[in-house]
């Protein structure tokens, strides 16, 4: 027997019925984003390696340890599988001059790649939905994005999702805070773990995000960025807080929230849950006013967030908020292959009327008996069976049999209909999948 080939560890297939939940979530998000005026952008999965080194920061964990980077064997170009979405979106905006006629509100959906140890809610190929507002400088844009996410949790009826908020100020303020952190941690070097010592001079802000319980007291007493903010940065953050309060959106200021990417300035935020164990962040983002210029464009502000699709689906599952698996409206039972010339046009008419029609078809063992076809019709979850038997077809009719109790419509017991009236019956029958 030929050896089976399996998927790469941490890169998972998504098959029915699970894929229906992905489609359902994506459709809900798209509908909400449209109401906020966001439009779709699609960028390549493979990008120049320099995009992420320059955009994310050379000493970030993603660039140092997690990226899938490789050399194109045909031309020697240094490439990478995208580990996140923002840098690629900004690259596209700069490359195609998308800001020439004013601000843009964009969103993306798709796979990202990081070489991590696979665990629940954390995979080597994972999927993000992200939004980016470019060309908007005011705190009201930060709040719009946070509100958008909060509205999504409400529409999905998700509980146990809380907002944590912080500000990173402007680059000069971050630099002053950085020096203060280095000086502070140098005085307590013997209390730093190996990871913190490695980051001390390259990215000391990330020490504040340590999960090491033995360093918590040390980190709590570290200098606060809030103490280094100028008037403009304080006003920006205070306005964000005030506008959230005006909408009744609860939040907690977390001075240790720093995010893992170098491009963030001013507002940063995370939506977190206690329902997923260690992988508690379900959506995160912030303002990145310097990234457009860093990637070669004319300086322009930006703010965005990304959510992890796998984690949102895990949370929906844990809270029993996922919809039931979709089922067909009609299952077509065809006992004789000679009937196909008559059956297929009728089924096409029903589908054109909006019904989901599952057609019984031959297997290597043939069409099967009427009894076996009825068993498959029932197992499919279909609401109705259409029976194209020899007697019915001889009279230019089809039998309609309800398969479920309490069905709405004009057929509550088995009846026969003229084939010519099948389309009219379909029009009267509200599809099970139609919006409610």
TrEMBL record:
> What positions does the entry give for L-histidine binding?
84-86, 114, 128, 132, 259, 263-264
Q: What is its main location?
A: cytoplasm
KW tRNA-binding (keyword) present = no
Keyword hit for Isomerase: no
Matching Pfam families = HGTP_anticodon, tRNA-synt_His
Q: Return the CDD domains for the record.
A: HisRS-like_core
Q: What class of enzyme is it?
A: ligase
One Gene Ontology cellular component:
cytoplasm
Q: Which Gene3D superfamilies match?
A: Anticodon-binding domain (3.40.50.800), Bira Bifunctional Protein, Domain 2 (3.30.930.10)
Q: Where located?
A: Cytoplasm
The Aminoacyl-transfer RNA synthetases class-II family profile domain is annotated at: 1-335
Identify the EC number(s). Answer: 6.1.1.21
Which GO molecular function, any one, fits this protein according to its record?
Answer: histidine-tRNA ligase activity
Taxonomy, superkingdom: Bacteria
Per the record, the GO terms for biological process are: histidyl-tRNA aminoacylation
* Record keywords, A-Z: Aminoacyl-tRNA synthetase, ATP-binding, Cytoplasm, Ligase, Nucleotide-binding, Protein biosynthesis
The subunit structure is: Homodimer.
Tell me the PANTHER family matching this sequence. Answer: HISTIDINE--TRNA LIGASE, MITOCHONDRIAL-RELATED (PTHR43707:SF1), HISTIDYL-TRNA SYNTHETASE (PTHR43707)
Query: Belongs to which family?
Result: Belongs to the class-II aminoacyl-tRNA synthetase family.
Report the protein name in the record.
Histidine--tRNA ligase
Q: Which organism is it from?
A: Tepidimonas thermarum
Encoding gene per record: hisS
């Amino acid at each position: 027997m030929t050896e089976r080939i399996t998927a790469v560890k941490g890169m998972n297939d998504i098959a029915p019925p699970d894929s229906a939940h992905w489609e359902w979530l994506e459709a809900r998000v798209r509908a909400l984003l449209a109401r906020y005026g966001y439009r779709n952008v699609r960028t390549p999965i493979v990008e120049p390696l320099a995009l992420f080194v320059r955009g994310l920061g050379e000493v970030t964990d993603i660039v140092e340890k997690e990226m899938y980077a490789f050399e194109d064997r045909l031309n020697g170009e240094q490439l990478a599988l995208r580990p996140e979405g923002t840098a690629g979106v900004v690259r596209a905006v700069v490359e195609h001059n998308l800001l020439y006629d004013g601000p843009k509100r964009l969103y993306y959906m798709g796979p990202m790649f990081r070489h991590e140890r696979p665990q629940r809610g954390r995979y080597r190929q994972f999927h993000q939905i992200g939004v980016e507002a470019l060309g908007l400088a005011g705190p009201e844009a930060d709040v719009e994005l946070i509100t958008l996410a909060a509205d999504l949790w409400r529409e999905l009826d998700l509980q146990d999702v809380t907002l944590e908020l912080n500000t990173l100020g402007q680059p000069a303020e971050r630099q002053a805070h950085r020096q203060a952190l280095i000086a502070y941690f140098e005085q307590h070097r013997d209390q730093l773990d190996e990871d913190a010592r490695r980051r001390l001079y390259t990215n000391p802000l990330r020490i504040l995000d340590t999960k090491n319980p033995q360093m918590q007291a040390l980190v709590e007493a570290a200098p606060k960025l809030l103490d280094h903010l100028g008037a403009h940065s304080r006003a920006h953050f205070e306005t964000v807080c005030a506008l959230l309060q005006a909408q009744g959106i609860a939040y907690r200021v977390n001075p240790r929230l720093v995010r893992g990417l170098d491009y963030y300035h001013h507002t940063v935020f995370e939506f977190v849950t206690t329902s997923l164990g260690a992988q508690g962040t379900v959506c995160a983002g912030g303002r990145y006013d310097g990234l457009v210029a860093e990637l070669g464009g004319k300086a322009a502000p930006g703010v965005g967030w990304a959510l992890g699709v796998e984690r949102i689906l895990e949370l929906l599952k844990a809270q029993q908020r996922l919809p039931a698996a979709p089922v067909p409206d009609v299952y077509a039972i065809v006992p004789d292959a000679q009937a196909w010339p008559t059956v297929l046009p009728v089924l096409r008419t029903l589908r054109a009327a909006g019904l989901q029609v599952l057609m019984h078809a031959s297997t290597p063992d043939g069409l099967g008996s009427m009894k076996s076809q009825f068993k498959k019709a029932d197992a499919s979850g279909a609401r109705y069976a259409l029976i194209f038997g020899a007697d019915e077809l001889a009279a230019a009719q089809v039998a309609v049999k309800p398969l479920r109790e309490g069905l709405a419509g004009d057929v509550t017991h088995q009846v026969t209909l003229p084939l010519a009236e099948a389309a009219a019956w379909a029009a009267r029958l509200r599809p099970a999948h139609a919006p409610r």
